[in-house]
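Whiteboard transcription, Tuesday session. T.W. wrote the structure tokens on the left side:
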């Protein structure tokens, strides 16, 4: 049905002198000028031309909404209006006649009321029609920004706003008389985001993973790239005698919706739901058998289990304003061993319970759709799951080892490609260099390759993984947004030029030259997992077996041929040289970080080659081994230093508050510490002594579930550290969580001394509240030993207890390590 021709003026009218011609006459643009202007748009529109431009005063531009516009279109119009707000007086005193930007939803014939928008009738023929849009001039004093849906209108406004950004100066704006028709390759483009519940470690009752974690600036950045999808874990609660509930924060959902972002709820991994209170309320739902302490194994044969899932889904259907729900199948193959569960394959059983619950919820909301997330646990059963799931159930492919990788191979297996043909399919790849670690990645070519693959196999959904920080992965996320929208538009190099242009870097070409040198070495680095915890154990195995590292295998997996590692080092060094002349120092720190990590790989390789076949070490080989261990230490120190410096240089938007090391570094730093501690242990086993070894953290104790009272009561924990002290100085104690649902809470740490005759006394103390958990907070304690006496017994005394976020005391699991090291003082 055609809408009326009325319009709503949302800008403030300005009283002007009698109008003259609306600015300067239209001026033609060359193709080169148009291409340069389009560099300001990310992602690149599918079809775009800018044959001419108009220069007018900002005051002359009026943003008008078509009659009946909803809040999504109104939000987009307000953003355009804010961009066009005069910040300085126009150079000319003469007033221009109005130039109108007309926003609205058109019909399938391309009409906006009684106005036909040239080219808009084509939108009805395009895929993902709710997101397609058309920008077209209506004469020389009006431009239409239209879509078939409010989301398309929002995208038209964002594209046009990006074109305007560089053309506003002196109270005037150059308006592109552009003709743009655009639509996305992938219908859903986004991420799932995990954020800790609250800074103080507290949570509401039930299983809860916090809000989206985005401030308005981050959401604006996210939507500016036409990223439109977020998945967030629902708040699940089970209480005895009450209906089970599942909810999302409605305010968060609405903040996203206004920006054309869809937020959908997740029912988290099905072996990790104990925090909901299900076992405390109904103990019979706990699965039988012996399982790891982190696994909340549910008995899916219990009637109460089915009732709870039914109620969760019905609750979501009533309270969450979207028509999709995602369920993550168990991440691991851990299953109830009762007589009723045993005959049924684990993931088929999980799917049966979930589908039953979904069908119950459809009685309340018939439009509710279900998606299932495959996992590394389900991997052997993936094809059976896909083939047995109803055709109207969506399938998303995730696998910690197979989708969280930048390996140079297709991500979607051939058999899965065939099985998903013709059905709703999504994928959860990594959108950073490595998972759960700080890993700068200039991955433009990787993103084009991966997004192109998803488009080729007919994927609908990209739900990428980019923890621990969107800010630190801004380049890679921007590239993912570019190629998820338009996989066949720009080349990777053209994207880099566009990205540098949008960041207002003075020499985009130099940035592109830097990228040409850095991406492939980084990709080799991350394929080899060189900055992950698993790196050093691989090196240690080669050393223990007295085997030399070989290209393309083990910790050198990313370096496929002889000479590849040396070529990567040369490339990273060249990138650092180029970056040295770029004013923005993020490029220099990223190149230096990459170079240091690669040099660590080379020293590790050379160490394995040195020791290959050697049953005993000659003094010369021992000395050379010590030198290589020292190189590994220095490289790791350089990696850490450059990551901190890099972090200080990157932002999603101007004046963004940066995370502190406590916010995100725990997911990167312990991996580096683990590498260094492993290197020290290996060196000591070889009888090699290197200068750095006394300053590397060494594990002095561990805690397990049950070490401390489940009630949360604080206790004094004693550790004999006499053998760890050899000289006076400052020593650092670090409490490092490794797994579990609870954090370790620390109140004070003291060092005591007891001479041979008795009389223990505190000689150093550090008192402050700390936390060692999934995110750490002041979890290190410094103690100064004024003088050392080899006759004295030294003891560490820590007052600690676990948190009590889980209602069921049996779920209050926590484990970790306590490390001790001397601080190197100038």
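and on the right, the sequence the group agreed on:
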């Amino acid at each position: 049905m055609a809408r009326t021709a009325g319009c709503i003026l949302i800008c403030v009218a300005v009283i002007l002198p009698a109008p003259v011609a609306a600015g300067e006459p239209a001026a033609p643009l060359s193709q080169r000028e148009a291409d340069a202007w389009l560099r300001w748009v990310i992602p690149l529109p599918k079809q775009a031309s800018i044959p001419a431009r108009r220069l007018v005063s900002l005051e002359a531009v009026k943003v008008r909404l078509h009659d009946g516009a909803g809040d999504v279109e109104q939000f987009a119009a307000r953003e355009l209006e804010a961009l066009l707000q005069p910040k300085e007086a126009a150079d000319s005193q003469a007033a221009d006649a109005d130039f109108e930007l007309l926003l609205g939803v058109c019909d399938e014939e391309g009409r906006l009321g009684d106005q036909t928008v040239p080219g808009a009738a084509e939108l009805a023929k395009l895929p993902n029609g709710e997101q397609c849009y058309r920008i077209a001039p209506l004469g020389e004093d009006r431009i239409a920004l239209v879509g078939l849906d409010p989301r398309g209108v929002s995208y038209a406004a964002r594209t046009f706003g990006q074109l305007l950004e560089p053309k506003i100066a002196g109270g005037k704006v150059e308006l592109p008389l552009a003709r743009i028709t655009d639509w996305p390759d992938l219908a859903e483009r986004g991420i799932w985001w995990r954020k800790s519940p609250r800074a103080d470690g507290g949570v509401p009752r039930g299983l809860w993973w916090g809000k989206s974690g985005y401030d308005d600036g981050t959401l604006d950045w996210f939507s500016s790239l036409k990223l439109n999808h977020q998945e967030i874990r629902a708040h699940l609660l089970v209480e005895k005698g009450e209906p089970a509930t599942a909810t999302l924060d409605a305010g968060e959902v609405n903040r996203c919706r206004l920006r054309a972002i869809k937020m959908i709820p997740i029912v988290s991994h099905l072996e990790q739901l104990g925090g909901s209170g299900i076992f405390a309320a109904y103990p019979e739902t706990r699965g039988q058998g012996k399982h790891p302490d982190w696994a909340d194994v549910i008995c899916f044969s219990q009637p109460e289990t089915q009732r709870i899932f039914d109620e969760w889904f019905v609750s979501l259907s009533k309270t969450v304003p979207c028509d999709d729900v995602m369920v993550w199948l168990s991440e691991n193959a851990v299953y109830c061993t009762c007589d009723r569960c045993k005959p049924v394959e684990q993931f088929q059983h999980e799917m049966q319970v979930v589908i039953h619950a979904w069908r119950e919820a459809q009685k309340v909301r018939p439009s509710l759709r279900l998606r299932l997330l495959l996992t590394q646990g389900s991997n052997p059963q993936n094809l059976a799951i896909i083939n047995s799931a109803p055709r109207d159930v969506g399938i998303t492919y995730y696998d910690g080892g197979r989708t969280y990788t930048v390996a140079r191979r297709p991500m979607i297996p051939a058999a899965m490609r065939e099985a998903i043909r013709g059905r709703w399919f999504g994928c959860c790849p990594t959108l950073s260099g490595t998972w759960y670690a700080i890993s700068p990645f200039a991955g433009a070519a990787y993103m084009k390759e991966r997004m192109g693959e998803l488009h080729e196999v007919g994927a609908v959904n990209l739900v990428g993984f980019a923890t621990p920080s969107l800010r630190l992965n801004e380049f890679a996320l921007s590239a993912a947004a570019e190629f998820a929208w338009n996989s066949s538009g720009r080349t990777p190099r053209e994207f880099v030029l566009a990205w540098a242009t949008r960041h207002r870097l003075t020499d985009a070409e130099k940035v592109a030259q830097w990228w040409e040198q850095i991406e492939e070495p980084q990709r080799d680095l991350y394929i080899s997992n060189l900055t992950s915890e698993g790196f050093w154990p691989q090196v240690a195995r080669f050393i223990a077996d007295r085997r030399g590292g070989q290209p393309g295998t083990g910790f050198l997996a990313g370096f496929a041929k002889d000479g590849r590692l040396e070529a990567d080092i040369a490339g990273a060094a060249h990138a650092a040289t180029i970056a040295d002349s770029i004013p923005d120092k993020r490029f220099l720190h990223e190149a230096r970080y990459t170079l240091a990590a690669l040099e660590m790989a080379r020293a590790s390789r050379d160490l394995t080659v040195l020791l290959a076949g050697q049953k005993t070490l000659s003094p010369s080989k021992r000395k050379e081994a010590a030198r290589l261990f020292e190189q590994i230490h220095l490289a790791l120190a350089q990696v850490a230093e450059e990551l901190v410096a890099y972090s200080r240089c990157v932002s999603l938007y101007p004046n963004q508050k940066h995370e502190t090391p406590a916010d995100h570094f725990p997911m990167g730093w312990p991996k580096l510490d683990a590498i260094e501690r492993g290197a020290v242990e290996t060196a000591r086993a070889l009888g090699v002594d290197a200068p750095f070894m006394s300053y590397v953290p060494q594990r002095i104790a561990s805690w397990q579930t049950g070490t401390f009272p489940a009630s949360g009561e604080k206790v004094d924990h004693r550790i004999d550290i006499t053998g760890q002290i050899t000289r006076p100085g400052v020593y650092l104690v670090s409490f490092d969580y490794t797994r579990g649902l609870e954090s370790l809470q620390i109140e004070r740490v003291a060092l005591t001394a007891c001479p041979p005759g008795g009389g223990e006394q505190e000689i150093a103390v550090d008192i402050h509240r700390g936390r060692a958990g999934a995110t750490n907070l002041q979890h290190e304690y410094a103690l100064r030993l004024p003088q050392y006496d080899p006759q004295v017994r030294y003891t560490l005394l820590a007052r600690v207890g676990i948190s009590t976020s889980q209602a069921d005391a049996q779920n209050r699991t926590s484990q970790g390590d306590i490390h001790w090291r001397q601080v190197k003082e100038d």
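Someone added at the bottom: The chain has four domains: 7-182, 188-502, 515-691, 697-822.
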